[in-house]
Amino acid sequence: MLITFADLAQLKNVSRSAVSQRKRTGILEGAYVKHNGKTLLNKELAIELWDKNSVPAPSPITAQTKKELKKQVQDMPADQIPDFSISRAKKEFYTAELARIQVEQQKKELISAKEVEKKSFEMAVGIREAFLTLPDRVSNLFASETDPTAIDSVMRQEIHSCLERFVEAA
């Protein structure tokens, strides 16, 4: 059945200019039919092309539906091509995740794993070096000392000072 562009606008409950915009973008390209010098549309094909290529109107999604959709999107293999609404939901979800990560990075609440690994390594090396140089620092004190409590006190003080340096550095 052939219909005019105005008829399509009535069927889809949109303005004539909305149909003209779709015509200009080529969405209805396969549905054009020349009849008695006029350009008409094949009704079935025009409706199918309209529905297939138009962005659906945003509808309020309940919280349960959002959770189900999010789970469905996350469980989907990357090589499958879902329909438009699922693809759009997946895109929006990952866009929001990237935005959240960027905000956390800017607030310094989130840092890269490589940076953490580098800092941890530096601190571990520093701690190791502090404890390995401990005998050099206290050996002269212990050479003349015979009181076990004095030696214990000096050892504890040196260990605490080593650890305090790293607490301050962190």
Detailed description of the structure:
It is a single chain. This protein folds into 3 domains: 2-53, no CATH class; 63-106; 113-169. Helix 4 (63-75) packs across helix 5 (84-106), helix 6 (113-132) packs antiparallel against helix 8 (148-169) and helix 7 (134-144) packs antiparallel against helix 8. The chain has helices at residues 5-12, 16-25, 43-53, 63-75, 84-106, 113-132, 134-144, 148-169, and strands spanning 2-3, 32-35, 38-42. It is rod-shaped and about 120 Å long. Strand 2 and strand 3 (38-42) form a beta hairpin. The protein has 170 residues and is mainly alpha-helical. The model has no long low-confidence stretch (mean pLDDT 82). It contains 8 helices and 3 strands.
Q: How do the strands of the widest beta sheet line up side by side?
A: 1-3-2
The helix content is: 55-70%
User: Structural class per helix/strand content?
Assistant: mainly alpha
Separation of the first and last Cα atoms: 76 Å
Question: What is the mean pLDDT?
Answer: 82
Largest sheet: 3 strands, antiparallel
Question: How much beta, percentage-wise?
Answer: 5-15%
Q: What's the helix count?
A: 8
* Unreliable residue stretches: none
Shape: rod-shaped
List the helices and strands and how they pair.
Elements: E1 2-3, H1 5-12, H2 16-25, E2 32-35, E3 38-42, H3 43-53, H4 63-75, H5 84-106, H6 113-132, H7 134-144, H8 148-169
